[in-house]
Design goal:
Elements (H helix, E strand, L loop, with lengths): L5 H17 L5 E2 L1 H19 L7 E3 L3 E2 H13 L2 H5 L6 H4 L3 E3 L2
Antiparallel strand pairs: 1-3, 2-4
Length: about 100
């Protein structure tokens, strides 16, 4: 009689960690959703500042939610004087995987 079976040992471990592997997608926005969030943030800032500024880059792939949320917060916190002068956004927006048009 075999007391130790690799399958009997590995199956519970795999079952415990499979949930961690599946939840990795919860940490990222898809490109379409990330671009939509940035365009929405730009639109709201333009409306509040009376400007017509366009995003200078597009997200090409998945973007970390935490990075994109920091970028949106940077847009929200930029004062209207800097926004209307075309002040470049902080490094938080540049650090996201993008295609830059500048």
């Amino acid at each position: 009689m075999k007391l130790f079976s690799p399958a009997r040992f590995l199956f519970p471990i795999f079952f415990l960690f499979s949930d961690c592997l599946q939840s990795q997608d919860d940490l990222f926005y898809q490109a379409q959703e990330g671009n939509q969030k940035i365009v929405t943030a730009y639109s709201l800032k333009n409306a509040s500042c009376g400007a017509n500024r366009l995003p200078a880059s597009l997200i090409l792939g998945r973007a970390k939610k935490s990075d994109l949320d920091l970028c949106i917060k940077a847009i929200e916190l930029t004062d209207c004087m800097k926004w209307n002068d075309g002040y470049p956004l902080s490094e938080t927006c540049v650090s996201i995987t993008t295609l830059n048009f500048n």
